[in-house]
Write a structure and sequence with these properties.
Blueprint lengths: L6 H17 L4 H18 L5 H12 L2 H15 L8
Length: about 90
């Protein structure tokens, strides 16, 4: 089963990649930039495999670049337990 078939598996996969990037010394900005590139690739080249991905793709496609970058950063926060949340 592909990680794209199940949203929880996708989130776990993305979280592992975020942790891997951090262990390699990547800062928050670099990780968010990579997440943006992945999001753009998925939206352009991959058919959604579930309702969550379909919604994300539709939101991505109607957003401008700044909003897409914000979405990518939010996905990083979502999968990484909100550790970067500011109060």
């Amino acid at each position: 089963m592909s990680v794209l078939n199940n949203f929880e598996e996708w989130k776990s996969f993305l979280n592992q990649r975020v942790e891997q990037g951090q262990s390699l010394g990547m800062d928050k900005e670099t990780i968010n930039d990579v997440a943006y590139q992945i999001g753009d690739y998925l939206a352009q080249d991959i058919d959604p495999k579930n309702d969550q991905e379909r919604l994300l793709k539709e939101l991505w496609n109607c957003a401008d670049e700044e909003e897409q970058r914000m979405m990518a950063g939010l996905m990083v926060k979502l999968v990484h337990g909100g550790e970067q949340r500011q109060h």
